[in-house]
Write a structure and sequence with these properties.
alpha+beta, three-stranded antiparallel beta sheet, 3 strands, about 25% helix
Length: about 90
Amino acid sequence: MEKEKKINTINKVQVIEPDSVRIGIKENAIQFEFGQIEHIDEEQDTLNILSNVRLSPKYLQYFMIKIVEAGIEYEKKFNVDIGFAPFWKPDKK
């Protein structure tokens, strides 16, 4: 029998709607920063980072697979195309 997992959310989770993503790469970490651009004036824009994810490069493939799985499940559940159909729908010829 498999052990039951207890899940603790340490920080409050918030939904964000970013309009930009910035990626930082180091030997031992890949960081994705999600933000919104604030237009100050004609001369300046400010990028406000709302959330970020930092992970070891060895988990990048697993992370990407989970993102694709989430996109496919979203499309199927809500019957909407957000760009993941090529991963799960056969080509119609």
